[in-house]
Amino acid sequence: MNCQQFQEVLPHIIETGGSADEEAHLQSCTACSDLVRDLKYIAEQAKLLLPMRDPGPRVWTNIEQSLQREGLIREGRMSRQGHTLTITQTQKKSWTPLGSVLAALAVITLAVVVINYHPRAIVTAHNSPATSSITADDQTLISQISQQQPEVRQAYEDGLKEANAYISDAQKAVDNDPNDDAARQHLQAAYHQKAMLYDMATSRSLP
Amino acid sequence: MLRKLPSSVILSATLMLGAAHLCAQSTKQGKFNIARGGILNVFDNAGSITVHAATGQQLIVSSTPHSPKVEVDSSSTPDGRRVEIRAHALPQQKPNNDEAKVDIDIGLPPGVAVTINAATAPITVENVSGDLTLSSDTGQVTLRNVTNSHVLVKGIAAPISLTNMTGGFVDITSNSGAVQLANVSGNKVSVNTASGNISFQGDCSGGGNYVMITHNGAIDVFLPQTASVDLTARSITGSVENDFPLQAKTHTSFVPDAGRSFAGTSNSGSSSVELQSFSGRIRVKKQ
Amino acid sequence: MNTTNQLLSRISDDKRPQKGKLTQAKKTIATGLSEAEAIERAKGGDAAAFEGLYGLHKRRVYSLCLRMTGNTAEAEDLTQEAFLQLYRKISTFRGESAFSTWLHRLSVNVVLMHLRKKGLPEVSLDEALEPQHEDGPKKDIGARDNVLAGSIDRVNLERSIESLPPGYRIIFVLHDIEGYEHNEIAEMMGCSIGNSKSQLHKARMKLRDLLKLSRAEKASRR
What we know:
The complex is a heterotrimer of chains A (207), B (287) and C (222).
Chain A: H1 3-13, H2 20-28, H3 30-47, H4 57-69, E1 85-86, H5 97-117, E2 123-124, H6 136-148, H7 153-176, H8 181-204
Parallel strand pairs in A: 1-2
Helix pairs in contact in A: 2-3, 5-6, 5-8, 6-7, 7-8
Chain B: H1 7-10, E1 28-33, E2 39-43, E3 47-53, E4 58-65, E5 70-76, E6 82-89, E7 102-108, E8 113-118, E9 123-128, E10 132-136, E11 141-147, E12 150-155, E13 160-166, E14 169-174, E15 179-184, E16 188-193, E17 198-201, E18 209-214, E19 219-223, E20 229-235, E21 240-242, E22 247-248, E23 261-265, E24 271-277, E25 282-286
Parallel strand pairs in B: 2-6, 2-8, 3-7, 3-9, 8-10, 9-11, 10-12, 11-13, 12-14, 13-15, 14-16, 15-17, 16-18, 17-19, 18-24, 19-25, 20-24, 21-25
Antiparallel strand pairs in B: 1-4, 4-7, 5-6, 20-23, 22-23
Chain C: H1 3-10, H2 25-28, H3 35-43, H4 47-69, H5 72-89, H6 99-118, H7 154-163, H8 166-177, H9 182-189, H10 193-221
Helix pairs in contact in C: 3-4, 4-5, 4-6, 4-8, 5-6, 7-10, 8-10, 9-10
């Protein structure tokens, strides 16, 4: 088997492995083994690419306007259910720091929505801070920022403390009066703050 | 059978136009063709980023690295829909804070959207009309003379200042950085801070919706006598003060509480203004 | 390997190509209010539910559209169209499949439909590749001492993917980034499985050239 013959069948065997002849050629030919190694390396690296870009702000505005025009959303139609809701996270133990942080971001993002749905609900988000302290996910985030951009670490740590304090205060106000729309809006704004911190940090984490 | 691609499409899209590979302490300039409706992405952590209107139809990028340990890569798609400018450290180099700085100056043709990601670099944008998505950890963000744009700004401890903006949408989220808006009007203007102070000065014209909310930052709103607003201000535990002449509303969605909330209208009440703090002071004054 | 790659390598087990490779977001919301509950709210016309679902998935849908089209304006239009289609159809979602997988497939179809309308070939059959002969001169960029392993960074890879001809790029994105199998790609694109494999191979070969070229250009500037 020569290189041309090997490379003709390569698209069909690169993932599954080839015949004895093909494997033998691969073992003996530097050019073809380099080629296969490069192609596999490209495929491996591609699998690691994460979605890191957000659409521009106009996109949601356009969607919202279309939904309103089509009558798919009803303005001011918020749920008024009084049951308790809990968002928890069944986190896989094998999760790595970034996986954990991304998952935390998703939960925080959804928490912003939840609060809007359930003005009377007592919403406890995953790792919801009881005080202005730093949670385990926050600590993971700070560690990553420390590695990548130590000069802004303090800003993120302070920001997380601020956001957690805001969540804590707003949560107490909602607990105190579940009918208080202002308290609910603060809780939503507080989670929005925290979501922003995670969003900015994770966007930045892959330069 | 599907037809063969035209060669222009097959051609590689990543062009190192202008070859903006720059030497330390010297300024290099690259020119790019960018389509109206295209987007410019800028990544520059430290140094400074300035965006202003270009005199012609080309995008002009000037970059000045502060050390030989950093460089600026630029790329664009052949259809001119996207240009990316990225400052980064060279492999195996560990620039300190000063060495990592790159100053980037951009002349922007009309109708081009801009996305900027910075850590400590101050961002200044003026006299443009495209959409802006700006993100800064601690660097000052300054916008002046922006029209009909969707403006999205996110900051951690970055002070944010917007002056003379008309039309469009403004959405600012700042953690501890102060937010100053002067003569800003739009369909929707939204500011959310945790501890950052918010200052608004203008007439809220255009029948838009203005929402400012903070945890413990102060909110100061200065309105001219001609402002036509339907205004509510509420604080959970902070104080609320008003010396702007408003006609008190008889119906509100909350029970007014002296010193904690008020609601009223001026003139025809065409724009909605909603001010909310958790513990920060809210003050509305006549300009 | 740079920090980014090290970071990514650590999460590689989590990021193996799942169909649509949506992160763990959906699966991690377990009790009380789930994403499914948010979907139910959206079915009832709750504006905040729509916005929340958009916030949760916008980055991923937009990134998919951008990688497939290589054009930001088109990608934004297609993101908008994908979410609008999603919201129009959300009442029919019964939860048989994961919401994210459903959304992902819907987004892919939106992009493919758009590309068909534009008349761009999704699969080109007639571009031959030159085998790398063991005899004869090797191309500079394929030289033995110039293998890629360990040298790709994310930015260069993203740029090179953008530079691929559309037909190659789409199959590469669907298979290598998004984790679709050849039989699924063949079904979506209306081509044979062999054709999908062949196009993927050509895409990787082209990427190899582009990445080596980029590296050589960069080295020559230093």
